[in-house]
Design goal:
Length: about 325
């Protein structure tokens, strides 16, 4: 099967909103009048971002989900995306499953594939996603204000727990590993919550490299500090509800490591004025997304973490760094 046969068979679809889709040198995309384009790119590399034996349908889902998560963090509505795909070989069974997972999530968010590229080489997936947002309503990392409450959506830490187990660092019961692995390989982009937070949140980002490290980007760009209460973040790991047994115990330090610096959560971390507390809860309810207040923004620079005993603790964890050791 040649490159263009592959594209036509698995990725070319009739355009819905784009002026021109797959097949020409460029696609043509026209946002609604008066709207700004929100654009983000993410690359997934085999062995770096996913295991070689990952289910291709789940990989297709995650490849788009991590990009939709960026749109969610900006409060942008998804429009379209491009796919650049490097494949070691044209394995039709694998490609069919990958495309099914990718396009199912695309359809769920009315986000159409409008172009891209395919080539032979190591397995590498790069997606660029396009969304739209009214001028002045995008959620930015730089908008946090002193006195804001800090919130996160959904659960934290389960993806890191799965990674530790899959790398052989931690034995987990099979049922718990399967539950945690779903969070690692099939994250839920919080697009509906991001849209609901427009006009409420002052700042936002998605948690991809670990809560503390990612929150640090908001603090740096907003020129503020923060206090996070680990007694509120630790219970957010869904695995904490798993029945304990004599053969497996959930260590507090591991819980804190996973929830504070785990990475691959793709939940939203955002700040909003304390006076909008009820509005944040309403936005979570309207988008069917759990939200939890975990701290507050301070005038004093730096990031402080309250430990299980109620006292400030030293931050002993580092978030993921693509070029770190």
């Amino acid at each position: 099967m040649g490159e263009f046969d592959l594209i036509r068979r698995y990725f070319q679809r009739p355009v819905r909103r784009a002026a021109l889709g797959v097949g020409d040198d460029c696609a043509l995309l026209a946002p609604a009048p008066g709207m700004q384009l929100a654009i983000s790119s993410d690359m997934l590399v085999e062995g770096r971002h996913f295991f070689p034996n990952v289910n291709p349908r789940l990989l297709g889902h995650k490849a788009l989900a991590v990009n939709l998560s960026d749109l969610a963090a900006s409060g942008a509505k998804p429009l379209a995306f491009t796919l650049a795909l490097s494949l070691p070989r044209a394995d039709e069974a694998w490609i069919s499953e990958f495309a099914a997972g990718l396009l199912a999530l695309a359809d769920a968010h009315d986000c159409e594939l409008i172009g891209g590229d395919t080539t032979g080489g190591p397995l590498n997936i790069c997606i660029t996603v396009f969304g739209e947002v009214p001028p002045g309503q995008a959620l930015l990392r730089s908008g946090s204000k002193v006195g804001d409450e800090i919130w996160v959506s959904g659960h934290l830490g389960d993806a890191r727990l799965a990674l530790e187990a899959l790398q052989g660092h931690l034995p987990l019961p099979a049922a718990l590993l399967e539950q945690a692995r779903q969070r690692l390989e099939s994250p839920t982009p919080r697009v509906a919550l991001g849209l609901a937070l427009r006009g409420i949140a002052n700042s936002a980002l998605d948690v991809s490299d670990g809560l503390l490290g990612d929150l640090g980007h908001i603090l740096e760009l907003s020129q503020v500090g923060a206090t996070v209460d680990s007694r509120l973040t630790t219970p957010l790991i869904a695995a904490s509800a798993y029945p304990k047994s004599a053969s497996w115990q959930f260590d507090l330090n591991l819980q804190q490591q996973c929830t504070l610096a785990g990475g691959d959560d793709y939940e939203l971390c955002f700040t909003a004025p304390a006076a909008r507390h009820a509005d944040v809860l309403a936005a979570g309810a309207a988008s069917a997304t759990p939200v939890t207040c975990i701290g507050h923004i301070d005038a004093e620079a730096g990031l402080r973490v309250i430990g299980a005993d109620g006292a400030l603790m030293s931050s002993q964890w580092k978030s993921f760094d693509h070029f770190g050791s």
